[in-house]
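R.M. (postdoc): so does anyone remember the format we settled on? I'll just put the structure tokens first.
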């Protein structure tokens, strides 16, 4: 059942944020992709792939280790501090942001960049005002130790 919940919330949340909304934005700006590919198409693809890889790895860690999903209504029951979470506290959001930046390049769309900036602002407020206090309340001192050791947004090599 956990696998199906993870799949559902993956389609619902990141699917909406990284596929549905950018598609809507781009389709309002122009009819679609026509013509030959240029440098920005090729530059955007690896960024999208990197972001998707980061996102999928984090969803897997939430499922396999945390025994939960990425949805705030069905969060992990165990604190996930390994994998990409050793380098940054919010790699899932970083992955989504990378996908959006890759789509900005791919579609060469300033509106998608504006959406990515707004998305990041909203996510930052959500993390600071809800997610971090909820994690502190749920996991206590182990989360505080983790929070002090690992940065919120910019990855860095873990301290030994």
């Amino acid at each position: 059942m956990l696998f199906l919940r993870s799949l559902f919330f993956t389609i619902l949340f990141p699917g909406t944020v990284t596929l549905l909304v950018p598609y809507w934005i781009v389709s309002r700006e122009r009819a679609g992709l026509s013509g030959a590919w240029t440098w920005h198409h090729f530059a955007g693809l690896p960024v999208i792939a990197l972001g998707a890889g980061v996102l999928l790895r984090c969803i897997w860690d939430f499922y396999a280790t945390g025994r939960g999903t990425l949805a705030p209504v069905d969060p992990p029951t165990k604190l996930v501090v390994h994998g990409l979470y050793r380098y940054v506290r919010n790699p899932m959001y970083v992955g989504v942001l990378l996908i959006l930046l890759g789509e900005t390049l791919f579609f060469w769309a300033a509106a998608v960049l504006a959406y990515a900036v707004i998305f990041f602002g909203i996510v930052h407020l959500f993390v600071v005002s809800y997610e971090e206090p909820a994690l502190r309340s749920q996991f206590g001192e182990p989360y505080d130790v983790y929070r002090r050791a690992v940065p919120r947004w910019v990855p860095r090599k873990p301290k030994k």
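R.M.: ...and that's the designed sequence above, right after the tokens. Also worth knowing: Residues 2-21+37-149 form one domain. The CA atoms of residues 40 and 108 lie 7 Å apart.
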